[in-house]
NUDIX hydrolase
Amino acid sequence: MIYYEKSVSSEQIYSGKIIKVRLDKVEMPDGSLADRELVEHPGGVGIVAVTDENEIILVKQFRKPFEKDIYEIPAGKLEPGEDHRECGIRELSEETGCRADSFEYLGFMYPSPGFLDEVTHIYLATGLHRGSAHPDDDEFLDVLYVPVKEVRQMIMDNRINDGKTVFGVLKALEFLKG
Amino acid sequence: MIYYEKSVSSEQIYSGKIIKVRLDKVEMPDGSLADRELVEHPGGVGIVAVTDENEIILVKQFRKPFEKDIYEIPAGKLEPGEDHRECGIRELSEETGCRADSFEYLGFMYPSPGFLDEVTHIYLATGLHRGSAHPDDDEFLDVLYVPVKEVRQMIMDNRINDGKTVFGVLKALEFLKG
């Protein structure tokens, strides 16, 4: 059965540098009206980069919403009109200095589909060649090479909590298993 | 190394029914200033419910940000002050009519840690007893019992894209494997 929520009005609340916020009034399947608070985001790309030594590259960086630094896979936001594959290759290079012989698409994630239109594309990068990182001016992060087995343990022990990282790593491990 | 971004000012942009939006000016590790657009969300709980017949319960519901219906595990937002375990038990009952003999904590997820403070707690529910669902007035959803093997295939084929669902199911399968 398909339920549809038709917008009967839409009010722009905020238009920022990264996000936009709007409030829609929608007609529910039973004809009643409901409010939908919606956040628009440009989306991004995360990269599960696995070395020939069976390590995964993690970055540790401060995240303001939690006032602490957390572990994530290398990732970044899409520039307007940017192809997500190109974005992934660019972000992996900027954050880690690596380029990859193989860059395979693992699918996309909706981080919080109830109110947020963000889409995060995930790639698996292998055949890595190290170079020097060149992060953006406002990016401060540590780059870590962690054995796959240890990353899996960090996920199971709740030391890695970032959605795209768990989504990407567990999917990559299933993919590599064949 | 720890990088910290201290807020030097904070401006409330929007305070809605579910989300709040604020704009912080932060001092970066090198002393420069940067803007941080931040969304506050009450957080929620997702439940990976596995039947004795080795099926996972999925719900299919319309999600306004994508203008389509998508597959997710049963889930819901935390009420103010609500314990996340109680919330999980309540949401599983409301959306599917099931109660569970065993309700194990699998950890928490940050859906989009760059700008969103939402935390999603994940539980594994087993020993299920079916009853009748009693969704909220503004919830319209279909409840599906899908074999574990098929859910795994739907994840690998990109037919399931919800972050908490992939995070929860793949982590639950690792957990059940031991």
Summary: Residues 163-177 of chain A form the longest helix (15 residues). The mean pLDDT of chain A is 95. The CA atoms of residues 171 and 177 of chain A lie 10 Å apart. Chain A touches chain B through 70 residues (CB under 8 Å).
